[in-house]
Amino acid sequence: MLKWIDDIPRSAAMNMALDEVLFNKYKNEPVLRIYYWDNSYTTIGYFQKVESITEIEFVRRFTGGLAVNHRNDISYSFIMSLGFWNVYNQRETYKNIHLVIQKVLQSFGVDSIILCDRIGDINNMCVQTFYENDLISEGRKIVGSCLRRRGSRLIVQGAIHVNLNYNAKRVFSEDFAKSLAGLLNTEVKKENFIDDDIESAKKIANTRYLNPLWNNMF
Question: What is the percentage of the chain residues whose pLDDT exceeds 70?
């Protein structure tokens, strides 16, 4: 069973904290969370150096990758472990997820290609750096992801930069969950956060993602 959470818009600190709550709670069933932003934010990769960031305010993710500007994008986190595919193969992980997203976006009239190799030099911004298995539409990067492992557990965080209205985003979210469940050969179960999850996330947000010591540690 794929647990699917189609979440409400939240702050960057709470979005990152809720992803961490899910990762900490993960047992055996894969989890897909699709979420949005209540304002404009920048998140940066865990190992990214502050001196490379031009934005005044940002939140450091607990996954890798580069800086991402968030506003109207559809973001997601996907948590799984061995048994569905090889979580130690980063390329396979990105490709599997991005192919699902590519197929769903086609139903909304968004055509894209999946890159077979990295193009150009690495920039400080994710959307300006093209990696293998990123989704590209009309010369623009529209989907990129980053990840973190703990043993055989894996979390992937990604941003989908497409222009969809509110209703279309909801339909996309459901189609994404169903298509990903199909890839995993399982069914979808829609869930919501419980109060304990929200309270745990608030504590994590305050001690980590709202803490300058965390955000400026490199």
Answer: 93
